[in-house]
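In this supplementary section we document a worked example of the pipeline. Step one takes a protein sequence of length 275 as its only input; no multiple sequence alignment statistics are reported here. Step two produces a three-dimensional model, which step three serialises into structure tokens for compact storage. The input and output of this example are shown verbatim.
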Amino acid sequence: MRAVIADDERLMREQLRARLSEVWPELQIVAEAKNGIEAVELTRQHRPDIVFLDIRMPGMTGVEAARQIAQLPDELPDEAEEDDSWPGCEIVFITAYDQYAVEAFEQGVVDYVLKPAERERLQLTVERIRKRLALRETTHEPPPSAGADMQQLLHKLAHQLNPGAAAHRLKWIQATVGQSIQMIPVDDVLFFISDEKYTRVQTATLEALIRKPIKELIDELDPEAFWQIHRSTLINTRAIAGVSRDMRGRQLVSVKGHPEKLEVSRSFTGLFKGM
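The serialised model returned by step three reads:
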């Protein structure tokens, strides 16, 4: 097993490394990151089985890093050989957080380690991770980081870091339609799709463009109303008509009131476990 550790405090990284060597001596720490940006890059480079992420880090928080790490498997080419594919990794948050956040972790989507890492508690975390990794090997299920429950948890933690975010959720989208600007109620939006410069806003009756990227929209929309199904796509859950598979086995979402079918990327196939 291979792991990446990310914490902006050197002493905390050293302490976690030392504790892990005691409770999981065969675990290989392949890299250490000082911030969220490094954590994402090192995960992309090493493709570990586990990433230990400090929640509060400068530049990019552990929550933001977790979102990007959860989508890294989508960067692998579709034609990659099975033996070369990387399904993603387990995520363990390192936190000195309050009880509210700890309750969120107790949902079991991911595990957590309280600072400073105590040997007994870390042993429990290791046992849980090893069981999940063993189960993944037999069932070939994606890790918990790929799924609706994980997205809900990340939204909850993001709002803990920024308590005022929920009060400022988008109600209207100011978008360009032809040569005019229109105010579109968020409830009317079927889906959002981004490219490098613009995000397409699709309703049942019109198509519009905005300059706000998906990663910003995620934090401004109700996570129960809009699901991310691809790194570039958000869909209104009330607009989901059904899910099918194409000849290549990819999940496709049918949209109520619109003929387009939206691809579900590998990182989010867990949203539709029955398919």
